[in-house]
What does this fold into?
Amino acid sequence: MKKESQKARGARDLLPADMQRFRAIENSFIESCSRWGYKEVRTPTLEYLNLFTSAGTLTPAMLNKVYSFLDWDGWSGDRVVLRPDGTIPVARLYMENMAKAGDAKLFYVSNMFSFESTGKENREKWQCGVEYIGHDKPSIDVEMIALAMEILAKTGLKNLKIKLSHAGIIKALLSSLVVDNDEYVRVLDQVNHGNWQYLMGIKSAGQDTKNLVSLLLNIKGKSTGFLENIKALPRVSGELKGSLENLSGITSILDELDYPYRIDIAATQNFEYYTGLNFQIVYKNSTVVSGGRYNDLLPLMGAGKVPACGFALYTDQLMKHISDEDGTNINQVIGIYAAIDHATTRAVFKMADFLHKNGYPSEINASTNKERYRWLIKYEKSSSSFVLTDCMTKQSRKVAPDRKLLDIIKQSKTAE
It folds into this structure.
């Protein structure tokens, strides 16, 4: 009889191999963000529910998936949630701690929680997030894409696809189709769930408007010139024209930098607080990064007119696509083994300490499984000496914890 798991539904354990991939992603992310001038922050796992409801920053569908409970404090307890989103807490952090300093370039590694009814999907998901607060230039939007692509390249992924959309274009189209506010909310909910055909059934919209909607939704590919032509059409509103100009400015920079991208206006979903560019980076039909511009979020939260943009790298998705070799390969570990007793302890620990101080991972009391290690060091009690075995070449030689040992290891790594 199979023993029932004591793990909570929708939860997962990260085993050593999983954590190896996780750290490889995290280290690449932190290194790139730091080089681009971003500073790390961390927000609480618990936030007040009204942070996500008072400004209408999350849709009702998303709010139905949050983990919320009463933070009991006598009769004045407030309802709190396990963080369902990374951007909104960072926006709060900026407002309360950094707003007087002006613009801010921030990054974080955090877990998000979202209820999923079947229990088959993870209810806890990890993200690496970036937020650039305080500037509203197309070059900053492009920086988000460039930074994300650099991070993904470090993990070894190739043949990545960049999909571009624009929330401003979509909202301008909805405004031209719908005049009633209640209907606008219903239409927005349909669009957020990917039901774009719903737009064509709106009775209050004229045929010319529907034709324009169809034209924009069917843009597929690298179409900067096509965007310019649409701007010139007589039925294009000022709001729509401004959004088209913004997207065209972004794609022009991407063209200069030779980034491969594909415009797909209908690719955007769940854009509740996005206002401008929305992008996705896809690997093998899996979205590993998404982000965009959200100039209305901080004003909705009471911060004044503060533009911002950012992206989230979906760590759980990315972990499925990188191999163990993309992290710290366990086969680069040095195994040290000996019959540990009073006579050998000092020598063995001295060797391990020497290797650690020089940047080489090593294990004491290692097994003799040569597939697990790149090198094995055996302490021979009879001669009070160490023997290094290269597990690839099978060659052995006597060594000591000195510079010569480091040179031998370095040379064998270079020869691989």
About this structure: Residues 344 and 381 are 7 Å apart (CA to CA). The chain has two domains: 16-325, 331-414.
